[in-house]
Amino acid sequence: MKSRPTLRPFFGLAFALGLLLAGCSRTDAPATAGAEPAPAAGARRVAVVISTLNNPWFVVLAETARDHAKQLGYEATIFDSQNDPAKESAHFDNVISSGYKAVLFNCTDAKGSIANVRRAKAAGIPVLCMDREIEANDAAVSQVLSDNYSGCVALGQYFVEQVGETGKYIELLGLVADTNTWNRSKGFHSVVDRYPGLKMVAQQSADFDRTKALEVLETLLQAHPDINAVFCGNDAMAMGAYQALLAAGKADKVKVFGFDGADDVVKAVAEGKITATVMQFPKTMARTAAENADKYLKGERNFPQRTPVAVELVTRSNVSKFGDYGRKP
Amino acid sequence: MSAPSSSVSTPARAPRPWAAFALAALGLGLLGVYPPFRVVSKRAAGGSRDPAGATVSTAPAAMFAPAAFAETLWTTQLLPAAERAPDVGPILDALRRNPAAALQTHARRVGLGNAAYYFARGTGRITAVERGRVLVELGGATVAVRTGPVFGNALRDGCGLLDVNQVPGLAEFNALSAELNRLVEQRVQPGLQAATVGATLAFAGAAEAPEALPASGPVLTFIPVRAEVKP
């Protein structure tokens, strides 16, 4: 008996091809294809993705962005990345799949966060950076940025005026992955390093964290008890440094310099506890980013990639002009 | 478990090459229509396309050389701009009347914020030679011209020739500022070493705009692009 030719090889090949095709998608399909439809409220939702809320300055940035987006008619939600790029990435997954219309973004990593911005962009969601720069010119719609370097150039000049052209100092750096850490440090050193009598005896990161700054400076003071000044990359660290100096009985001998313009440090400048800080303008940046997002969603496309926001030196002589994270009205 | 009957009862079959060719052709055809993967450039995948279809620049940032950029700018644009800069006299008059109004009328800004700068030229008599600066009296006011280390962005932001988006990023923009300051120190300030009280100084440059007239001292401090001391 002649048997029929077997079809098993064909079915095997067809099955294999089926498996392959099931795993494929066209690259020009929307990245959100296959996702559940966005909820109705998503039509007017804006995400505010912030590097950390463990610092009052960033809370002001986030809440101002959220509140201004609400004033412009959007629902706005704050996502706290807790200075963790993995959490930030998960927030973008959520934002993309949930149908948000725009992201007001304060990144955790100038380089590492670019991929998140690109993913949102590929999904049709504009990203507008606030305060912290991402090192790409074709990913975000716009970047409204503090000019940290220039602020620390001014701070460095005042440092030389106050400390003098000879002395020893310690520098507390912020997060080493953050470009602002280095922009501030470089701006400061572009001035202070011109005075060879000013010696930096230690430079260490305290991650922009008040408690860590206290601990780091307590340790460094053991090795360098004769310093004249501490330059801190932000105000939270300046307050931690001041606490360490207070505990060591050196608060009236060592000058502390911060950066941010946080309310508690502005008050400390007025009281003579902190020598100077630099006022950034988080509310200006947050409002501008929210307004740009609104304009973008209404069709405008002509945005400068970067808009620097000038910062201002705050000293005891002009401190009365400042407060509430900006200039007093 | 019994073996399949076909393996027992079917005699050895002659190979059928047409069937294998047909299956292979079908498979290749399907793969052509539905490729299992696609190779795309990172740029295409990463979003050279604006979400709403607007075109954005995706050209990779060329290696930025701040010294070369500053050198070219200095020679081809900054020096000619200094030659045709407005006279400082009307600015000083406006400052005396109303500093806020003078700022609106005569000053330049880059980005957002309160920092603003004047770019002007003037000629006056040197009244003092101090560490890092000389004081010049002109039109009933005193201004300073910097002779010592130059810091800050007065020249970059005051000259009206530069925008942050002309360079790859803020770091590069600040590096450019430092280079312009270096050129001032190397090319202009050595000529000011001859400054003496009573001599005449012709200068052009940028100065930070004050919000209010200072209680004492010079009204403006110029970072000079050009300076000439005449006995």
Radius of gyration of chain A: 25 Å
- SS class of chain A: alpha/beta
Report the major sheet of chain A.
6 strands, parallel
Give the number of DSSP strands of chain B: 5
Tell me which protein chains meet in the greatest interface and how many residues each side has: A-B, 59 and 52 residues
Structural class of chain B: alpha+beta
The major sheet of chain B is characterized as: 5 strands, mixed, barrel
Distance between the termini of chain B: 117 Å
Q: What Rg of chain B is obtained from the alpha carbons, in whole angstroms? A: 35 Å
Shape of chain B: elongated
Gross morphology of chain A is elongated
What is the CATH C level class of chain B, in words?
A: Mainly Beta
Tell me about this structure.
The complex is a heterodimer of chains A (329) and B (231). Chain A has 329 residues and is an alpha/beta fold. Chain A is 41% helix and 18% strand. Chain A is built from ten helices and twelve strands. Chain A has a six-stranded parallel beta sheet with strand order 2-1-3-4-5-11, sandwiched between helices. A four-stranded parallel beta sheet of chain A has the order 7-6-8-9, with helices on both faces. In chain A, strands 10-12 form a two-stranded antiparallel sheet. In chain A, strand 3 (102-105), helix 4 (114-122) and strand 4 (127-131) form a beta-alpha-beta unit. The radius of gyration of chain A is 25 Å and the shape is elongated. Mean pLDDT of chain A is 88; it is low at 1-5 and 14-42. Chain B is α+β, with helices and mostly antiparallel strands. Chain B has one domain: OB fold (Dihydrolipoamide Acetyltransferase, E2P). Chain B is built from eight helices and five strands. In chain B, strand 1 (117-130) and strand 2 (133-138) form a beta hairpin. In chain B, helix 4 (66-83) packs across helix 8 (170-188). Chain B is elongated and about 110 Å long. Chain B starts with a helix and ends with a strand. Residues 1-12 and 37-61 of chain B have low confidence and may be disordered. The chains are: A alpha/beta (329), B alpha+beta (231). At the A-B interface, helix 1, helix 4, helix 5, helix 6 and helix 10 of A face helix 2, helix 3 and helix 8 of B.
